Amino acid sequence: MAEDRESIVRRLAFKLISKKIAGSTANSMLEKVRELNAQGLHSTITFINEGVDDTTKARYNLNAYAQTIRQIYRLHLNAGISIRLSQLGYSLGEDTLNKSMEGIFRSAQGTKIPIWIETESSIGTERQLRLYRRYKPLYQNLGIEIPILQVHDLVMIREHIRPNDMVKLTTHIYNANPVVERPANAAGRKPKQKRGQKNGYDDHRHDTFHLYVSYISALLVSKAKVVIQESDDRVISRIARFNRDYKRHLIFEMPLGYSERRLKRLVKQGITPNTYVPYGKDWVPYALSRLEPGRIRDIAVSVLDGQHKNDLNG
Question: What Rg do the C-alpha atoms of the chain give, in angstroms?
Answer without folding.
Answer: 20
